[in-house]
Design brief:
Layout lengths: L5 H5 L17 H9 L2 E8 L4 E6 L4 E6 L6 E7 L2 E5 L2 H8 L8 E3 L7 E8 L12 E4 L7 H8 L7 H13 L3 H4 L7 E9 L6 E4 L8 E6 L3 E7 L19 E7 L23
Antiparallel strand pairs: 1-13, 2-12, 3-11, 3-13, 4-5, 4-9, 4-12, 6-7, 7-11, 8-9, 9-10
Length: 279
Amino acid sequence: MRPSDADARRAVEPVVCYPPNTLPAPDLALYVRARAGARKLAETTVPPRQGACFDVPAGHFFRITSVEGPQVGDLNLFNARDLSERFYSGKTRALHGTHITTGERMWSSVPALRPMATVIHDTLQWYGIDEFGGSVHDVIGTRCDPYTHHLLAGGQYHHCCHSNLTRALAEHTGLPLNEAEPLVHDVMNVFMCTGFTRDTGQYFMKASPVRPGDYIELFAEIGLIGCLSACPGGDCSTTHSSDVATCYPLLVEVFAPEPGALEGWSSPEPNGYDRSHGV
């Protein structure tokens, strides 16, 4: 039964859970200056419907570029020295919002809970939030996976992003598949345009605005292993986890700054909480 004060309850104004004004701010001006003189160190091409890993030393830059055609990618990040510290999409979402762009950061899992990477340039920043509530580079989607595919459609599909990331991580680290898979985690959906429906609150996707030459570039706050899947949904305009969508490769480039270009910068320390938990 609808209570008599239902309208009053619904009219209560929201409060932002984690106001970002006290977050440690990245020195974007320093990063941009360092990037201007950086030299290309390595590149990795992620084939369509496949995954690949890449290494980014602390204080280096990495760029993910759409090439050949519109394509979204699912990104995992790991501390290169400790794979148990990995990207924490939920806390990144709580701190910055459902989608991230220039000046915002990818945060790591507890107990470290520190910046892993900072977005320094995003050619799709112009997109903003559209009339449907959609935006680009989400940290709300989990990743397409063969378990959900089997649940909804049956069959055994091995090129879901979860499987792509699992195979790539196993190959890169030498771990067996059954040890690599539990390390794969919720992603940043690079270039993917997503949101929640206003009437039912369901996660939606729509054709990505990405075009060849568009890129997002990040600064590695700690030494990283990146793992990227070129999603089998292509631009995610109609379907995912299938061989029907047109898919394209993604290019990852790593850049090294000139010596001294980051003077005064150091990797963030792990979170300072003492882990006593009140005991």
